[in-house]
Amino acid sequence: MDKSYKYLGYFLLLLIPLTIAGFFKTYIVQFPNNFKPNNNWFIHLHAIIATVWILMLIVQPFLILNRKFAIHRTIGKLSYIVFPLLVISFIPQIIRILNSENPENIFFPGADCVLLIIFYSSAIYYRKMSPKHMRYMIATALVFLGPTIGRIGPIWFGWSEILTQNVQYTIIYFILICLIFYDKSKGKDYNPYLVAVGGFALHQIVFHIIFL
To answer: How many structural domains does the chain have?
Structure first.
């Protein structure tokens, strides 16, 4: 891991309180009543797999920092199983949305899946090139800001869907631009972040075409 990224794990830890805040009122606080038999089992399955994935994202940089390379590689190989399961866990939700009164909302899980697949596939392709691999994995972590901020905005602050999405994009762009300038100042390869900017820009364009 680049020495300049030695605190990456601590930043990724922010995903935990953000996820709790995003899903507290609509999911977490309803435990255990929302775990009754036949009560949207696919939501719980997705929540479990997504939680495992986020924890894997967080623990990996700590393992590198502490030179636990063997465990890091083992968890990396485990991701070959967990990531496909994560993507598959979106399918029941997508089917439910398609059969709902607002099928256009398929954009949210569908577009997020596309970004996750692109960034994760790129990270695996460059798995033997640690700098690129790490930066693409950071991009996958940023995708999870969508579902969290997408709930925090309207639930906690009463924001509209359009405002919430634009705030989400602004935060993601800000993070990516900061990372690009940081890498540029250190003479590092920031191209993965440019790919991420392009991916999220396309995400935003499609969102505005559908919902405006």
So the answer is: 1
Could you list the residue range(s) of the whole structural domain that residue 32 is in? 3-211
**Among 72, 68, 44, CA closest to 57:** 72
Task: Kindly state the tokens that stand for 103.
Answer: 């099928």
Q: DSSP string spanning 108-169? A: HHHHHHHHHHHHHHHHHHTTTSHHHHHHHHHHHHHHTHHHHHHHHHHHHH---HHHHHHHHH
Helix axis angle, 130-143 relative to 41-65, nearest 10°?
Answer: 150
Which pLDDT tens digit goes with each residue over 2-50?
A: 777 888 999 999 999 999 999 888 777 776 665 555 557 778 888 899 9
Write down the pLDDT at residue 162.
92
Cα 149 to Cα 155: distance, rounded to the nearest angstrom? 10
Contact 22, 146 (CB under 8 A): no
68-83 mean pLDDT: 95
Q: Where are the alpha helices (DSSP H) in the chain?
A: 8-12, 15-23, 41-65, 69-88, 91-98, 107-125, 130-143, 145-157, 161-186, 191-211
| Residue length of the chain | 212
Count the neighbouring beta carbons within 10 Å of the beta carbon of residue 196.
28
